[in-house]
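We emphasize that the prediction below concerns an isolated chain of 234 residues; any contacts that depend on oligomerization or on bound cofactors are therefore not represented. The input was used exactly as deposited, without trimming of termini.
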Amino acid sequence: MQQLQVGLGEPGLGTDLPEGSDAIECREGFWEINGGAKRAADIVISLCALVFLAPLMLVTFAAIKLDGGGAFFTQSRVGRGGKLFRMYKFRTMYTDAEAVLQRLLDADPHARAEWNRFQKLRNDPRITRIGQFLRSSSIDELPQLLNVLKGNMSIVGQRPILAHQREAYGVHITGYEQARPGITGLWQVKGRNRLSFDQRAALGTDYVRRWSFSRDLWILILTVPALLFSAGAY
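Result of the prediction step, given as a token string:
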């Protein structure tokens, strides 16, 4: 069976997960990942971050409004237990983004192939000028701190997915739904959009099955250079 190498070279972050493996049998840390200690840490970190980042968020809000349209974008994502929730982001796309995407995919087979593999486009015609900067810097994700306070998300977790992507997760969906998705996670520090959709799914499952506080700490530490250097962001 082909092996998916996703080791990060840091204590507690290496993994050698077979593609297509049923990763549900091994659930170390299952109760702790949904327990009070991690939830308390999420609340404290998100509150502190919101206070510290409030000026940046206000400036971002004003810049998007000046560019035209609403400042916020909400979208239904899959949360713990498979329940859907509304995830908040700063708007980075034009208001007719979905129609623009569909026209491109219908007309361009190369773009369609890229979308099918990554669920992302490197040259995405939907993204506004300011939106490109917000995405590369991950500033667009700051409103998700409100999702953390509400209990929909965690600071560290699996990448939040859309409802129609559940089937594409295959055997990994059960592991994904065992915990809250996160603002950052293994996908963020391992390459972000350079990873295929299958790799992101495998990383999410591995995070859930081998969760620990020390692993969360390493992911948070590695998130800083990933953001500073915009590694894999587009």
